[in-house]
Design a protein that fits this description.
GO terms for molecular function: heme binding; oxygen binding. The protein has helices at about 10-25, 30-40, 40-60, 70-75, 80-100, 100-125. It is an all-alpha fold.
Length: about 140
Amino acid sequence: MSQPFAAFTEESLAVLVRAFYDRARQDALLGPVFEGAVGTTEEAWDRHRARIVDFWSSVLLSTGRYEGRPMVVHAGLPLIGPDHFRRWLALFQETARGLFTAEAADRLAEVSARIGRSLQMGLAVARGEDAGAYLR
């Protein structure tokens, strides 16, 4: 890509999701979690990436395409904890900063942090854990 994306479009979100998951799959902390949750085949990853593009399209473009239940999905992954969320957020934001203008990347950082906090708090409550541990 010669110039960073300045706007959120279906194309830019698809590029973001692909780039992020390419990195996450190789990450020492996140890779095993994603492999266990998504699988190892490219078909499984294609389905997962398409679902996540739908998620971000719904969040940022108000398309309403995403019909999943992220809290339920994440609650089914008992091994994820605060360190995973911190790493996910850092990697996601690094990826966004490499693909988008500063203004667009800042928006992604803001929205992703808010979503991450919400998921973490919900998981902590569901697990009967100290919700504050997810915010440190």
